[in-house]
Task: structure prediction
Amino acid sequence: MSYRIMRRGLAVAVALGGLLLSAPAGAASTDAGSVAAPRPTLVPVGTGSPELESQRQATTRAAATASGRRTSAALAPPQPCWQNVSFRRFGLTRYVSMELQYSGDRKYELRARSDSVGPWELFTLCRDPFSEVTTIRSQSNHNYVSVEEAYQGTIYAMLRARTGEVNLGPWELFYSDIEPGQGYCGQIRANSNGLFVAAEEDYPGTSKGMLRARTTAAQIGTWETFCY
Result:
């Protein structure tokens, strides 16, 4: 099911039973916000770094398993991957950052909190256009983004860029209904618990904007909508 969003002029139509999200007056049709960000770069198959090509292969294997139309990862075409992808919560100019300086259980936490794009806000994304299986990797610490399902309470299913190469599994797989660089906004759903990623705007202080996979399809709104 597609939850794709495209901004045109002053409004955004969301395919969620007729829900309509208003855009700020004077907003661009690409919903690019007021802060310039690097455009995602599509990396041709076989031309990326060893790290990127490994991510491409991992995404291809996961997509082959997830899609009923494919029975063998060996027969599946390599998945498209983009570098320099930045995420911004819809309606805001706050980009998603990977908190490199946090410690303990929150080390490498993802938060929608930055008003500009630097190394902590850049990710590599690979996405199968058929199954929508997606992997996201921080370009700052080179780890995959994972959903922390073992966490409890207000940090349940927090997103952290903490998984290395050898540990890629269900917690590191997502479904996204858009591809980078096309001027669209949409949702990101976690494979492990089936819930959509939200930015916790009500959280205080250093927790504000924390990304968590905790929203059902019926509850999707602006907090669950990202532009990249």
Remarks:
- The chain has one domain: 34-227.
- Residues 34-227 form a domain with the Trefoil (Acidic Fibroblast Growth Factor, subunit A) fold (CATH 2.80.10.50).
- Confidence is low (pLDDT under 50) at residues 1-34.
